[in-house]
Amino acid sequence: MAENEDGTEKTEEPSEKKLRDAREKGQIPRSRELSTLLMTLSAALFLYLYGPQMMADMQDVLIRGLSFQRDIAFDTQKLFDLIIALIIAAIFMILPFILLMVFVAIISPLLLGGWAFSTKALAPSFSKLNPVKGIKKMFSAQALMELLKAFAKFVLVIAMATAFLYMVFPQVLGLGVEPKNLALMHSAELITQAFIFVSLALLVVAVIDVPFQLWNHNRQLKMTKQEVKEEHKQQEGNPEVKGRIRQVQREMSQRRMMEKVPEADVVITNPTHFAVALRYDPDGMAEPMVVAMGADFMAAQIRTIAQEHNVMVVEAPPLARALYYNAEVDRPIPYDLFRAVAAVLAYVFQLRDSGKAQTVDFENLPIPEDLQVPEAN
């Protein structure tokens, strides 16, 4: 069971944030054995497919370098040109192999942990010089695993090499009686086969090492219950701070809402518990909009501001309750309340334009039953 430095057990699986932070620090699962296996197998496969061609090219380079004409030996410029030509031929001969090894060396680590470049991992850390931590690492599970892997590789490679040599020993003895060209090609073939055969020994080590590295990486990133709580608290935020932020947001929203009350055409009240301010421009608006609403103290403020700016206040308790519980600020009124609101707006516009209006029974406006709210609410 993983433990923290203070002795507390790490029993919880690492969170997404923990894994993300670890990746940013360059702490990702890596298996050197997997990379070694892929590089050796790639080299063995390349030599198996293109080895004969490389041996032919090498033979040509050696022949050109060792059987030049006599006049070249006494001409510095010709000798220099020959050396340069041989070097270029040798480079082109081994360049595909080098490019393959570089490609595999870059790609193979990505198969397990993906790509993670971190400047934090490159920064100097004095904690790495701590001798106590160094001693702990020497006796850690990781160090033990590395020791077992090194011993396993040694045993397996020796065993595979011995087995292969035993199988091809008659062919090795026969190389001495073969023609030199055939013996050279046969030797290259045997070396390539031995390389492939011995490389397969690393497959056993990699199959064990890859799951271990994944398990060890997850074990190192495990968290204590307290760490989980602290991370959750940081992500969710302090409840008191969040409450204060919500309060400030409500106050700002209410302040903006109150600033729109003077633009309203009418304020419909309960008369004391609820107040809903409506605005409607027949020329520029398709439907009436709710610009402000509130209950109790907020309702009193809306009525006060409306009176200060000569906005008409209409007492229509059923409609005020229906709007308060079914409408939203800065949104059109509910469609089912259009007839009731239209009756109030017609009354307001007639009274504002001509100073008189037909009497309206505000207590019995056409409000659908499903939108009616009892007075007790």
List the helices and strands and how they pair.
Blueprint: H1 16-24, H2 32-66, H3 70-73, H4 76-107, H5 110-113, H6 119-122, H7 131-138, H8 141-174, H9 180-199, H10 201-221, H11 225-236, H12 239-260, E1 266-269, E2 274-279, E3 289-295, H13 297-308, E4 312-315, H14 317-326, H15 338-354
Parallel strand pairs: 1-4
Antiparallel strand pairs: 1-2, 2-3
Describe the protein:
This is Flagellar biosynthetic protein FlhB. The longest helix is centred in the first third of the chain and has 35 residues, at 32-66. With 377 residues, the protein is mainly alpha-helical. The model has no long low-confidence stretch (mean pLDDT 79). The chain contains 15 helices and four strands. It is elongated and about 130 Å long. The two termini are 58 Å apart. A four-stranded mixed beta sheet has the order 3-2-1-4, with helices on both faces.
Q: Quick one: biggest sheet?
A: 4 strands, mixed
Rg from Cα: 43 Å
Mean pLDDT across all amino acids: 79
Secondary-structure element order, N to C? HHHHHHHHHHHHEEEHEHH
The portion of residues forming beta strands comes to 5-15%
Strand order of the largest sheet: 3-2-1-4
Total strands: 4
Could you give a short description of this structure?
The chain is mainly alpha-helical. It has 15 helices and four strands.
Features of this protein?
4 strands, mainly alpha, 377 residues, 6% strand, protein transport, elongated
